Amino acid sequence: MNWQGFWNGDHSIYVNARHRQIHDSMLARDIVAEIKSPGLIVLDYACGEATEAHHVAAQCATLILSDGAATVREKLKQRYAMTASIVIQSPDETKALPDGSVDLIIVNSLLQYLNRDDTETLMRMLHAKLKPAGRLIIGDVIPPHVPALTDALALLRFGAQHGFFFAAFGGLIRTVFSDYRKIRGALGLTMWEESDFLTLLSNAGFTARRLTKNFGHNQARMAFECIKMS
Q: Which residues have a Cβ under 8 Å from the Cβ of 192 and sit 6 or more positions away?
């Protein structure tokens, strides 16, 4: 199995419903903070199930939710069937968008599952879709030498803060025997030095900087703001 097959299959990366709700609410809040005007066209690329995306859509003109997993897209279509401002796309449909048509792109917790060549190709594609001076926000980039234990401790602290510590602990035990753990052990996760990633972004046509705060709860990971150079 590869990462694409994992996300398209029956899986759970959340320890319980409260974990999912708090995580998705926090992510929606962080995305909304990046929307500087109500008239923007926003693309959330590799969006996942995006259960709180209606809060994001309320702050922009159009929200495009793009995900590579067909099962995820079907859930999104059912969830947001009555929300006219939300558009559901596959990655191929996103690639077919007119160049220069999007104001803001969000990519969160994706790049660890892509190799470096695929990451460079993706950055160039997203650069093309942005309007002049459009912004790309990338979250959850893993720096080197961050062990799985760091992620585990971040989850436990998150659970303690929001009332699901024991569920988080149990979820970590289950992860040891999960397909996620097996695939991570076999394929690994792609990690980036900050300087190397900034160089890649510059080569793709962006002026970029590291943000002081990552999306979500895990502040051991990095986030970047990228502005399209005209």
A: 111, 141, 142, 143, 144, 200, 222
CATH number, domain with residue 41: 3.40.50.150
Contacts with 222 (C-beta within 8 Å, 6 or more apart), sequence order: 140, 141, 142, 143, 192, 194, 197, 210, 211, 214
> Tokens 């962080």 map to which residue?
30
Could you give the C-alpha distances from 127 to 118, 181, 203, in angstroms and in order?
14, 33, 11
| Nearest of 188, 201, 209 to residue 144 by alpha carbon | 188
Cβ atoms of 56 and 33 within 8 Å: the answer is no
Counted domains in the chain = 1
pLDDT of residue 179: 60
Burial zone of 108 (CB within 10 Å; 0-12 exposed, 13-18 middle, 19+ buried): buried
Distance CA 204, CA 182 (A): 33
CA dihedral of residues 154, 197, 207, 212 (deg, nearest 10): 20
The pairing of strands 222-228 and 86-89 is unpaired
Query: Residue 133: which domain range?
Result: 3-228
Mean pLDDT of 168-197: 71
Element (H, E) at 51: none
- The residues near 96 (Cβ < 8 Å, ≥ 6 apart) are none
Prediction pTM value:
0.85
> How many angstroms separate the CA atoms of 114 and 95, rounded?
17
Mean pLDDT computed over 147-174: 77
